[in-house]
Design brief:
two-stranded antiparallel ribbon; 11% strand; 2 helices
């Protein structure tokens, strides 16, 4: 499992790992996602949102410090 560490928090890459382990469907017809696939995608979206919000907050703080220093 790959992890991304940002500001002391770890974020996992379980969704992509999970999806890679699933059997590849050779059919060209679309299929419905399983309950566990939906849950994994939702978890990934939440983790991504938290990480992006933290990055934006950090960047805003850096910009504020830069402006105050000038």
């Amino acid at each position: 499992m790959a992890t991304l560490k940002n500001g002391g928090k770890k974020y996992s890459a379980t969704v992509s790992t999970f999806l890679q382990k699933t059997k590849q469907d050779t059919s060209t017809a679309p299929r419905m996602l399983t309950v566990s696939e939906k849950a994994s995608l939702r978890q990934h979206a939440r983790e991504t949102s938290v990480m992006m919000r933290a990055m934006v907050k950090q960047r805003k703080a850096q910009l504020k410090q830069t402006q105050e220093a000038q």
